[in-house]
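input
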Amino acid sequence: MRELSRILKSLCDVTAAVEQEADRLMATWRSQIHRDEFRPSAENLARYVALRHHDLRPLQRRLARYGLSSLGRLESRVAPTLAAVTASLAILSGTSKKARHPSSSAFFAGERRLAAQGRAIFGPVNHEAGVAVLITCPTEAAEDPTFMMELAKRRVEAVRINCAHDDAEAWGRMVAHLHAACASTGHDIKVFMDLAGPKIRTGEVRSGKHKKAHKGDRLIFTAVGDLGAVECDESHIAVECTLSEVFSAAKPGDRVFIDDGKLSAEIEACKSWGLLARVTVCKEEGVHLKSEKALNFPDTALDIPALTKADREALHFVAQHAHGIEFSFVQSADDVRQLQDALAELRPNDWRKKILVLKIETARGLVNLPDILVQAAGQQPTAVMIARGDLSVEIGFARTAEIQEELLWMAEAASVPSIWATQVLETLVKTGTPSRGEMTDAAMAARAECVMLNKGPHLLEAIDQLRLLFGRMEDHQHKKFAKLRRLHSW
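output
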């Protein structure tokens, strides 16, 4: 009894601290919330953020001894879970025989809010597992109407058109083919369009006497058109960087990743003509540097808007034809406000009905996620895309598994649906044969509300396999909740 009383006091202390911190967060968020249906989700998110500022491991272990450890599954229901465990402790310890547990309706309200948002964003999911499928459209979808017809026959929930490729004319043909397929099959498919964002790329490359870069080699980064001004000898490899803001913001010690992390370097000096860096990681046989490859500066504070001039031009088409807008490289609540202001200019009467998909691709976006979620979901239906490609490069591959879990938890706490993206069943899509590892990854993806598949020759087969896999996983797991279906293997 004495031990239970001590645990109860610890839990009450945590709960009081959480409520105080959550009140402070809500005070800063209140002006951003214009959708009344999001208010309880924002309050739960505030409590979740406040709670996760505490190390709960000692308390969890003490609760587990008495069969009371349920704090590990409280993402969608922070206050009801704390209240339920507190009531159980009060009764068991004899502190109060009148302690009341939350009603079933109150306890599971967060789950219902998240499910409702999923239906609002992806429409009704067309299989028992309840996970939507989002398909990236290839360029060929503009010319061949059978692609959209095959998706409609498979009752896919949504398609994604990448505005970094093709043009408005091609996008229009894709949308027209989709509408025709939906009309023919009677199945509605949502259209999501992806704004490219401020992509940083390599420009022209001057290799000197080296054809490849190796560990220890020196690299020169310079602005586009400035290769002639570089002070270097034939032992250096000089590379143009397409984003000029890099050169005023970078500092010695900052890391640079090229081609999705195939090569990494560390900046050693900032010169008038550019940046001098040394290769720290690459393949033993070296890396041949080419133009139009991705550049990432994860340690450099780049104060650039996520909404580029090209994005604003594309937004004219997107605002008219897409159900949802995928916002690339969003890093702050201010970035979201810029997009919302631009959207309000184009659709002043109904812009809040447009779906906003937040692509979390940078370390800064990760840190600012709670504020980003509130600014977005406080105004319009919102989903989060776990864009593991660029994010992995930014935060390091070793942290990717950890961070994708945290993104799932944070989205669930805010009742914001999540989209599991990047390289899902990639080998199957490209070759027709899946790898063992990617099947496991796809099974884990069933905890999201939606999974995205990229284009490839075996895409349709991958859709079918994904549906089967989700059907098997549905009986075992929902989010972090193990359902404990009877096992048939033993």
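quick obs: The first strand starts at residue 132 and ends at 136.
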